[in-house]
Backbone:
């Protein structure tokens, strides 16, 4: 039995705005699910409906086999970690983590054992007597996570928990969240607009746009077999390149797609036309407008037939800016999309 079952969930806000359309999904015990999509796509609304912070307009939500549409947040067996950690400023780290257990009337020695155990898991032992203002952003974030996991609930809901951290802290905390999940094993639903977070954390990703689920799948499925142009362009960094009208879909023009990391740069003076004749694939030549050296790789920016193109190379001596070069994409790395609907076409 799935831990969480959403079927035909809809959200229409009081002002008539339809924020979530027909969201259906079964989430297994222990899964790490990431809801991802651009701002306003409905991911927080979905999470808040699961938490019980927002009413479900239509559809059925069950948690642990119980229909939960109308159960109060505290009876749903879920704990939520918010973007703003919402720590109590006048309480120490110890008190912040133990507060929920005190409210439940647990004995002080049980609370102490639980707090110390969680503090050990999260590396917070040295800070138990500090107040939130005396902690770094990353440490505060860990306290917020600690306060959620101390409740021993079966489901964690996290809404952009890393968004207040700087880039380096985010990478560290991302790894920590993955480790905590491995240790604690609770079902987790995590909201972010950051595709890298989604790719690195998720067992399965749900990509949303304008209130509609675009695709549900493992990071690999989304990367290698995006259902449509939106998912193809959202998952992967730098994003997939698209050539409008670059492919013939049985008589009508379609959109050709290929990832920046799947393009070969050809030696000066060489075009890819010969390779295309031999083995298919796609060749183009373009003037390199900008090179961006990232250390382990280089991004080349150019344009071809009015389409912006990025090529990512892992070589140390990239072509110069202003050079015109031939490029080649092997057949197995090409994607095709319907120009109107954006649906991906595989096979055939
Ligand atoms: P973000 O990443 O910006 O938080 P999101 O994907 O989480 O975006 P939601 O917060 O779920 O998006 O909002 C989805 C849509 O619903 C948005 O267009 C938003 O303006 C709208 N919305 C959110 N709350 C309300 C409300 N109380 N009343 C009316 N519309 C709302």
Residues:
């Amino acid at each position: 039995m799935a831990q969480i079952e959403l079927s035909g969930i809809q959200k229409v806000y009081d002002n008539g705005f339809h924020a979530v359309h027909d969201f259906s999904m079964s989430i297994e015990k222990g899964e790490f699910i990431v809801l991802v999509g651009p701002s306003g796509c409905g991911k927080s609304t979905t999470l808040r409906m699961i938490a019980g912070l927002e009413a479900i307009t239509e559809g059925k939500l069950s948690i642990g086999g119980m229909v939960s549409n109308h159960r109060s947040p505290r009876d749903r067996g879920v704990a939520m970690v918010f973007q703003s950690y919402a720590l109590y400023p006048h309480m120490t780290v110890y008190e912040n983590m133990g507060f929920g257990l005190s409210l439940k009337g647990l004995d002080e020695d049980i609370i102490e054992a639980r707090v110390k155990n969680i503090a050990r898991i999260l590396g917070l032992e040295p800070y138990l007597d500090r107040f939130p203002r005396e902690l770094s952003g990353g440490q505060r974030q860990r306290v917020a996570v600690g306060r959620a996991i101390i409740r021993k609930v079966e489901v964690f809901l996290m809404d952009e928990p890393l968004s207040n951290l700087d880039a380096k802290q985010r990478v560290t905390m991302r790894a920590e969240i993955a480790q905590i999940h491995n240790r604690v094993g609770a079902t987790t639903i995590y909201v972010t607009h950051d595709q890298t977070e989604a790719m690195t954390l998720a067992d399965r990703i749900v990509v949303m746009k304008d209130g509609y689920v675009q695709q549900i799948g493992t990071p690999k499925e989304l990367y290698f077999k995006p259902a449509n142009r939106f998912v193809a362009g959202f998952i992967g960094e730098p994003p997939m390149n698209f050539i409008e009208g670059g492919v013939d879909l049985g008589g009508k023009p379609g959109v050709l797609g290929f990832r920046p990391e799947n393009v070969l740069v050809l030696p000066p003076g060489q075009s890819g036309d010969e390779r295309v004749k031999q083995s298919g694939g796609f060749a183009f030549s373009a003037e390199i407008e900008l090179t961006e050296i990232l250390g382990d790789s280089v991004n080349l920016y150019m344009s071809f037939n009015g389409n912006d193109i990025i090529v990512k190379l892992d070589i140390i001596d990239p072509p110069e800016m202003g050079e015109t070069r031939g490029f080649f994409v092997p057949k197995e790395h090409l994607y095709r999309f319907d120009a109107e609907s954006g649906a991906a076409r595989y096979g055939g």
